[in-house]
Amino acid sequence: MLIKIKKKLLYICLTFVFSNEFTPIQNSNLNYIHTRFNWPQIPQASYYELNIDDSSSFIQFEVNKNSYILTDFLNWGGQYNWSVCGYDQNNLVIECFNNNFFSISELPNYYPDNINLIHLDNGYYQGLNLLDFDGLGFSVILDKSGNPIWFVDKNNFNPPKILTTQFLKSGNFIGFGAGKGYEINIDGEILFQTPSEFGVHHDFKKHDNSYFLLDNLIESHPCPEPCPDNLPEEINWLGDRFIQLSNYGELIWEWNSFDYIDLNDYNPLYLDRLSTNYSEDDTMDWTHSNSIFYNNGKVYISVRNLSRILKIDYESKNLDWHIGEEDFMNQIYFNNSIEFSQQHSVEELSNGNILFFDNHTFLQPEISRCIEFAYDEVADSLNLVWEYILPNNLFSGSRGECNRLDNGSTLINAGRTGNIIEVNDLDEIVWHLVLENNNLSQASYRVERIKSLYPLAFSFELDELTGSYYDYYLLDNHEIITGQVHNNGTSIQSYNYQLLDSENQIILSDSLVIDSQSTGYINMNLDHLDIDTSSDYHIKIIPLSDINQYQEINFKFNQILGDLNSDSIVNVIDAIIMVNLILNFEYQYNADYNNDGLLNIQDIILIINSIID
User: What sign for the dihedral angle of Cα 565, 567, 570, 572?
Assistant: First the structure.
């Protein structure tokens, strides 16, 4: 007679298959000193002890999850070993992961020799500073004292130059260099590069899953009147097209300056420059746009050589309005004006106002400033909301940026002067940094205050996990899989979690939104599923800010304890199989009734008792 057991225990054999199970990766060489540590879960651990040493000193942390972010102790050029042990609630060691090694690179030989902190007070809005060294061709993250935290090696790029323009919620970076736009990760590895048919100059940004860029465009058009005597009737005009690409590099949207800006709108200065030592391949630098900003169906463009800001309707591509130097305008949209010149870095603020850096080149006096203005498209009026005029010695004829911080302060990059300042809402300087190399000011395009290197950093753990990473994991499932996702990053994050079969088909799926430094909970009810104990399954945790940074566990639903021939019942046939296993000195873990790592007469007695029970 075949007798089904009355109580079934369902186990799962698990293997953690993260893209990197241990972070930092073994023998990795890092380009940052704020470092994230991740390791596989140690079952039944109430807490973990993380140890890091550099052969002369060590540091130890007690943490309650399988990840940690270290923001001190590590140094440029250092070499480190690290280990982690899991402890139970009685403070006894369960298991340890040892012999992990990583190093941190030296700062590159092109790193500037003088980053000087001029002023710092309590008004500094906490965070790190992402900025570029234009002349040196690379980008860094500095703390408030000017100490380097991260750099990207320009030699990873061909030609060797990378100027960052944006820090993403994923922890990736957007930047450009020598006609190419890039998305890179924290290690400086290229994740996306613009196709060769598109050039990139001055700006490259990401919005959701697409990229916006500026690309030069040359067309032949009549020489404007009055045309210098040494120029032909037709000359080359250098304009711009504003491009949106998909994350596959496909063209989504394009706006051509030649289609929407009147050719009568030009700056005579650049016609005069063309006539100086003219040759037939020369171009008139007509637009020289330097920033693009998209938000909610609106596109803002800074056109430097016309001293003009454009607002474009994304859907229709119609020009909603422009403002700027009216001497170069065939059409004026507003009843009043704001005087500015050769501006940079236009953006829309959360209140709908526009903020930009006014270089004020060629105007008197030449004093650069930040400008915030509001506009009323019904009344056709502009309103200067706020300005901050930089000191005379911080005038910058090119480059520059103003960034509004969450506390209302403004972070200002004074372009060619190599000065970075932060002013509070009372226009008081609360932070001032100077960038120099070989006693020369180091020009910079942009600066961005970020909370940390890790807006996205997470780990996860499953409940009721037993076993060992070095052997296999077991999960007493009880018809449900539960666990925790720990958001260790500094940004709120959304996650999908999925149960998938051996063909990578989704069986169950749900989502979580987890605040920074918080935990979300996995819950997968398996009651309605027809589980195939011979098939492979996996659980995947996918952060929506970067689906490529997912973490995953592969596993197999194990057979019932004692079901040695996988027919879902325990009977005398299984007892005979167990006897043969013992006689052949073989081991099968679901035959080990008393879980002592051995198969012997005790297990035979237990399986017989379960059959006759």
Answer: negative
| Spatial distance between the Cα atoms of 218 and 230, rounded to a whole number of angstroms | 20
For residue 509 the two structure tokens come to 């799926």
Backbone angles phi, psi at 515, to 5 degrees: -65, 160
Contact 438, 467 (CB under 8 A): no
pTM over 0.85: yes
Residue in the block written with tokens 């000017």: 146
Rounded distance between C-alpha atoms, residue 570 and residue 593, angstroms: 12
Helices (H), 516-586: 572-583
Find out whether 526 and 477 touch, Cβ atoms under 8 Å. yes
Distance CA 254, CA 259 (A): 11
Q: Measure Cα distances from 407 to 29, 118, 388, 526 in Å.
A: 36, 22, 17, 47
Tokens 């070993």 -> residue? 81
Report the alpha-carbon distance of residue 136 to residue 435 in Å, rounded: 11
- What is the H or E stretch that residue 372 is in? strand 369-376
Taking only the tens place, the pLDDT of each residue in 133-169 is 999 999 999 999 999 999 999 999 999 999 999 999 9
**Identity at 202, one-letter amino acid code:** H
CA distance 54 to 66: 22
What tokens appear for 26 in the block? 């073994």
- With beta carbons less than 8 A apart as the criterion, state whether 416 and 98 touch: no
- Distance between CA atoms of 561 and 479, rounded to whole angstroms? 15
Query: What is the C-alpha end-to-end distance of the chain, expressed in Å?
Result: 13
Q: Which long-range contacts (CB under 8 A, 24 or more apart) does 462-465 make?
A: 462/14, 462/41, 462/522, 462/539, 462/553, 465/14, 465/41, 465/43, 465/44
Residue ranges in the chain whose pLDDT is less than 70: 1-20, 476-478, 533-534, 557-559, 566, 568
- DSSP letter (8 states) at residue 32: B
Q: Convert the pLDDT of each residue in 433-445 to its tens digit.
A: 999 999 999 999 9
Nearest Cα residue to 457 out of 408, 406, 517: 517
Task: Express each pLDDT in 190-234 by its tens digit.
Answer: 999 999 999 999 999 999 999 999 999 999 999 999 999 999 999
Burial environment of residue 117 by CB neighbours within 10 A (0 to 12, 13 to 18, 19 or more): middle
DSSP state letter for 534: T
